[in-house]
Amino acid sequence: MTHFSRRGVLVAGSALVLGIGAKGLIGFETAQAADSSLLDANAWVRIDSDGAITIIFPITEMGQGSSTALPLIVAEELDAEWDDVVVEQLHRDDRTYGNPIFGKVLYTAGSTGVYGYFDTLRLAGAQARALLLAIAAKHWGVPVDSLTTEPSQVVHAASGQRLTYGEIAGLPADGIDLPEADKTALKHRDQYRLIGKEIPRLDIPAKTRGEETYAFDVRVPGMLYASVLRSPVEGETPVSVDESAALAIPGVRQTVTLPDGIAVVAERAEAAIAGKLALVVEWTTAAPAHSFDSDRSLADYAEAAEDLSRDGATWREEGDGPGTIAKADRALKATYRSDYAYHAQIEPMAAVASVDADGKGAEVWAATQTQSWTMRTITQVLQTKPERIRLHMLTMGGSFGRRTALTQEYLRDALLASKAVAAPVKVLWSREEDLKFGWFRPTAAQHMRAGLSKEGKLEGWHHRVASPSVIAYFNPLRWSQVDPHDIIAMRGSENKFYQLPDMRAEHIITERGARLAPWRGIGASYTSFAAEAFMDELAEAAESDPIAFRLQLLQHNPRGRRLLERVREMSNWGRPEQGRALGVAFAGYGDSMAAGVVEISLDGESGVIRAHRLWAAIDAGLVVAPDNARAQIEGGIVFGVSSALKERITIKKGEVEQNNFYDYEIVRANEVPEIVIDLESIDASPTGIGEVGTPMVAPAIANAFFALTGQRLRHMPFTPERVTGALAS
Amino acid sequence: MTQLTVNGKTIEVEAEPETSLLLVLREHLGLTGTKFGCGATMCGACTVHVDGFATFSCVTPIEMVEGAEVTTIEGLSAEGDHPLQKAWVAEQVPQCGYCQSGQIMRAAALLAENPKPTREEIVETMSTNLCRCGTYGRIVKAVQRAAEEA
Fold it and tell me: How many other C-beta atoms lie within 10 A of the C-beta of residue B52?
């Protein structure tokens, strides 16, 4: 990959380095060497005398496009020529670069890349530019304020003199104080020439040639392969192991016992896989997870959600939701269910580790959503210090929340296997392993209650989510800080875009019945289903148009109102084509809002719902990379369609019943709607685009189904069996 | 020893004859542009051409392709400038990119057989391959663009 370089190549150069501390810049350096020079302007920017401008990419890439969008923000304020920019992946857990939203943890999740780094990166770019101006001013002996910049050049208009940024990097900078950068120095949005423009993604050409390197692709000299037979049920251990057949396979070196499985290590991948299949293992059957049963879990959760005597952890409370409902003219209630869902990223788990001879250091190739927890996994497994670890963070073949955990078992296994065999080891998961040992979106039951006045006005809102805590499982360290507030389980139920003066959203934390992790849209992928499908039920009870009913609740929120008005117009609302129906939902993710109208039809015989068109209007504040933002919203919508119509993990006796894409189906090209997106860049802070498309889709489809058939779908996914069941009721 | 012809070069491979073409391409020959996704013909990430036909390399034993011409994403064009690769850039198709080699190889086989496919033909053919990032709409547009510009 040519657009990424690795840090630490200042061999024959010189550098000007700026360090940014908690309060801003703390210093910069120049370094001189034989034949070139570098201005290491700050922690984020390094300028080479040949003109190359290296910008650090602090998070990781899983397809969301941040590896272009974040450097673009720096380049804008630096006034860099975009073609001069080289993006450098951050390969270590250096909290200098951490996301302010996550307390400086390096964590790529929650649509927070642009949202969390926007100010930091603009200031870094502006400061590096100010430093270039100061060096040029000294060189020419003119006041700094007589200088301006053009892309990658400093200009002294009075004399007509110019210096390129590369030329400035080669000038002496001694005696120059590092300039302060504050928000007043930042460009006005009218001056942007990169932000908000159609700049192609840097990673795309390599991805059309098969040249991108994923963890699955890593090959290092002397590397062995490990295939892991994992305990079929969480927590079970081997009673007996017969490895004789495995060891008899040519190329198989040995087995390695792991915390939850047995690795077969071999010289070739095919031998490792064959060796794993040849292992004969008897497992214990006493682990608590043996009783995991998805149907029973969901039934228990529904009972808990509906049992009003059972108090939950308050997620959001305004006024008195339950009391207002009790006093209302009419009270409505409904229970919504959603099943476990699998990430289904096309690249299964993989990692390569080469542990040093003393077992206390390692070179590691991994691709995760967090350098911080990856480094933590490594240092915990090897009981060592970060300085001993050489980490290569690679791009992910999709992730959608899968690679976020505090402890990364695929990487742990590579480390332990490498340590045991004293050679580099690549751990590769099959699709079946990736699915059966997946960490899922939890199954959830949600009990919705609301009151209506005689005039059909909403009076009181009560959203009870019964699900296990996701954070308690995937990041117990974080749970110890936030318990009982689980944003992963609850997001969306705060319902903050509507005016709901009397509302309560609460989390009835139930027993865990599977491995759990964040999943695109997190809680909003199911809480918005319940909230917005229920909103439609209220509109019906109030004899109100579903859009008009929602607009009443948005009188204080003109930006939200505009979105609903836009999709009403775009979709020709109220005039569906023959045999089709329209459904609306208004949801979003975090601070980003989305309105969507979907057009569906139904094959009544098979029970298959077909989504034909989907119109979406999105407000995510300022849009940094518009085409990529649209691509993310399209992808988020496709993810939502797939989840709403097809995706379902079931668990019996502690084992996942599905195997591969033939029984865990995700949507294909012939099953997705035509998507029309209205995305206006707003003069406000950017608020994230990676997940905003997903939450509205399921309720919009459920609401369209009601418009078409008069029946409600309250259990996601809306499989053909559930559809025919609803039609028969 | 099995003799394979990959991207125009004839290579001796030391692997059992029933070894999958995908594993041999990736782990023996280092041609990692072709991806493993499911091992079960369900996702198409492993799609290569065998004598011009789009083929799931994950379930193709190397003994079956001895004497055949195997083409991978690395051999689709000399400079990475096949009309489809250019169209993929123009339409900004890839997100994570992991499935895209397989998508492009599937589309290339379609255009070789049917240079001016209808939208429906494109959608049906491309439905063999999965993309979890949800780039389907852009894939269809890129195939249409390549067909128009070729």
Answer: 13
Contact B134 A225 (CB under 8 A): no
A155 phi and psi angles, rounded to 5 deg: -120, 135
- At residue A463, the 3 state secondary structure works out as strand
Asked if A43 and A97 count as a contact pair (C-beta separation under 8 A), the reply is yes
Q: What's the rounded Cα separation, in Å, for the pair A581 and A536?
A: 14
Closest CA to A616 of A567, A673, A658: A567
Q: Which ipTM value was assigned to this complex? A: 0.99
How many Cβ atoms sit within 10 Å of the Cβ of residue A279? Answer: 21
Distance in angstroms (rounded) separating the CA atoms of residues A489 and A466: 9
Q: Which two tokens stand for residue B131?
A: 């993309």
Q: What is the mean pLDDT of chain A?
A: 94
Full strand arrangement of the beta sheet holding A674-679? A581-589, A592-603, A608-619, A674-679
Please report the pLDDT score of residue A33 as a whole number.
Answer: 40
**Chains A–B, number of C-beta pairs less than 8 Å apart:** 173
> For residue range B11-20, what is the model confidence (pLDDT) as tens digits?
999 999 999 9
pLDDT for position A37: 67
What are the pLDDT digits (tens) for A220-267?
999 999 999 999 999 999 999 999 999 999 999 999 999 999 999 999
Give burial (CB, 10 Å; 0-12/13-18/19+) of A16: buried
Q: What is the CA radius of gyration of chain B?
A: 15
**How far are the Cα atoms of A70, A321, A459, A501, A659 from residue A329, in angstroms, in the given order?**
52, 14, 9, 17, 50
Q: Which residues of A429-452 are buried (b: 16+ CB within 10 A; e: fewer)?
A: bbbbbbbbbbbbbbbbbbbbbbbb
pLDDT in tens, A331-387: 999 999 999 999 999 999 999 999 999 999 999 999 999 999 999 999 999 999 999
Mutate: best of B35, B41, B85, B98, partner A, most A CBs <10 A: B98
Q: Do B96 and A62 touch (CB under 8 A)?
A: yes
pTM of the model: 0.96
Predicted confidence at residue A729, as pLDDT, reads: 85
Angle, CA A134 vertex, CA A130 and CA A138 arms, to 5° = 170
Kindly identify which residue of chain A lies nearest to residue B90, measuring between CA atoms: A200
Confidence category of residue A174, pLDDT binned at 50, 70, 90:
confident
A270 and chain B in contact, CB less than 8 A: yes
Q: CA angle, corner A236, sides to A234 and A238, nearest 5? A: 140
